[in-house]
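thread from #wetlab-drylab

HS: before we spend reagent money on co-crystallization trials with magnesium ion, can we at least see a predicted complex? here's what I'd submit
DV: go for it
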Amino acid sequence: MRERTASLDASNRELLNEIDERKQVERILRESTARYYAVTQSANDAIATADSQGNIVGWNRRAEAMFGYSEEQALGRPLTLIIPHRHREAHQRGMNRVLAGGASRVTGKAFETEGLRSDGSEFPIELSLAHWEVGDSRFVSGTIRDISERIRTENHLRVAATTFEAQDGVTITDANKRILRVNRAFTEITGYSAEEAIGQTPHMLSSGRHDPGFYDAMWDSLVRTGNWQGEIWNRRKNGEIFPEWLSITAVRDAQGQITNYVGTFADITERKAAENEIAQLAFYDQLTGLPNRRLLLDRLRHALAGCSRSTRSGALLFLDLDNFKTLNDTLGHDVGDQLLREAAARLTSCVRQSDTVARLGGDEFVIVLEDLEGPDAHHLAAMQVETLAIKVQTQLNLPYLLDVGTMGDTINRRSHQCSCSIGIAMFDGQPVSAEELMKRADTAMYQAKAAGRNAMRFFDPEMQAAVTARAAMEADLRRAIKENQFVLHYQAQVDADGRVVGAEALVRWLHPERGLIYPTEFIPLAEETGMILRLGRWVLESAFAQLAAWAARAEFAGLTLAVNVSAQQFQHKEFVSEVFGLLDRSGADPCRVKLELTERLLVHNVQEVIEKMLALKARGVSFALDDFGTGYSSLAYLKRMPLDQLKIDQSFVRDVLDDGNDAVIARSVVALARSLGLGVIAEGVETARQRDFLADSGCLTYQGYLFSEPLPAADFERFANSAA
Ligand code: C2E
Ligand code: MG
Ligand code: MG
């Protein structure tokens, strides 16, 4: 019994020990599980544990937050739940290796991969795996860290680092503008090394070109908006001042306090130079460096706008060098250019800094004066301008010393004098366009030229009215030529017995509104505009047609017809062939045609004129010199001209009885004509006493109201018949 008891005791003790042991293990297990649970639940990283089947058996709170599955949803599901599809196969292989007990390449190491959230989105994670066993069971635990933020920061840093070493200079300062860091480009652009720059303020680069207000505004904008951008002039270490495009950003901490300033800048010297060059080409005259027409118009518009707002006035001076073309033609363009440059310098020296001197091209310059006396003191302003214009003329009139070439070592210099004509247009608050003002000054300048050069003229409203009327007239005349609004009247030329020997054809304009207009009103305009060529051709054509018609009637067949020809018309290179063509077509007898030329024709190319006259004379055409005595032809030329008749101008005839001088001239003309073997006719004969005086002097052919006014063809024919 005792034995049995003893053996029972022993087995009991064993059992009890065993129970104790198991309890102990269970307690430890419970404790460690609780500890594990507590530890994992409070961990900062997500921890997921899977059993050997790969199913989730542990899921902490961070894992819930990170992946979007609650513990309840996760437990028992395969771990692949949180692994993107493309990684699942590799994951499975790894898991198998680990669970088979093989040392894994992955356990104990952290590596980066991606996790998959319950909403399907992926995110970068850092994963460390561990495996462990409890009894026969193997487990794998993954500690997972969301590294999205770190990756983002890294990317930022990478971008920042790249930027920092970019082409642009970068300066980073603290809140007190002390430089903390600069990049390589900073050193390349400014010449200062990082060591030299760090600890300084960006003031070390200041060029002195900006006033304190500039920097105040810059810092003000930085504090208010956190940004500033603009062009700034800085100074390099070598002293060179250069333009840069600078942008500064203020960096603030979480509390909104400025901690740093980051400035990036690009050297824009080249861009600036290119910009300047373009501006120079676009807005300045290359020869003289003065503003060109474009810049002038721009400034003028500003001046006009400024004037309309103030009580001051201004003036536009239009200058043209007199006879510049002659200099250019005789001594060459290089010499002409020298003169223009010198003239430009003199002009600039005459005006204030605020005034504009521009070159329009050729020998035309313009001065814009601003800030003169107001419109209520018109004459004062005009006097100011006149004073300046006189100064300009005096300056420009001084001799120019021009290089006209080199001879060995010596430079040939020639002194040249050059006057200028000035037209002036004033402006005040009245609305007027820049272009209109230019036109006014230009008009005034032409008046100055017409007044005999080295003169100045103000544009005034009367002048303006004349200009406007002229413009209207020009348009009318153009239409008149196109629509043939002209007629010829015929004024009789009679002999000593009062018999009609011929006629002078005089053109009239039948204006649709204004009625009959006399040639003194439109011939000069036609000459100026070149329209005289077409008009003159029409006159010749009509006159020849009339002659041809008369040739068919016995009573008129012997008449000569005088036709006025403008100098410009005669000088046209096709004139002779044109006359021949018209003669042929009309069938008029050239021997009945007398062309009236004026002394103006004798100013240029006398030889050519003579040759043309001879060519026409060869076909029988004759010539009269109209308005004789009023021009300035020299007797020498007159002798060479193949003329047939001199026409004593009506101005002498008019006063021939009252003015002894005119009487002498009339007599001299007759004597001269006789000595040259020419005929002579007096025009503008209005009284019998005038005719008698002329007859006494030896002039036996006449034209004038005493006999007949210019008449339409039919009236003339009637008169001629009655006078026969
Ligand atoms: P002109 O050739 O000297 O013509 C004479 C002008 O004197 C004409 O004026 C005529 O009407 C005017 N006249 C004639 N007799 C008298 C008189 O007794 N007393 C006064 N006070 N005047 C008289 P008109 O027709 O007005 O022509 C003026 C000028 O126009 C002409 O002067 C001529 O230079 C030019 N002209 C006329 N027709 C033509 C033409 O077809 N072609 C060109 N190029 N010029 C023309
Ligand atoms: Mg005439
Ligand atoms: Mg005349």
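DV: The pocket of magnesium ion (ligand 2) is lined by residues 504, 564, 596, 626 (CB under 6 Å).
HS: ok that's useful, forwarding to the group
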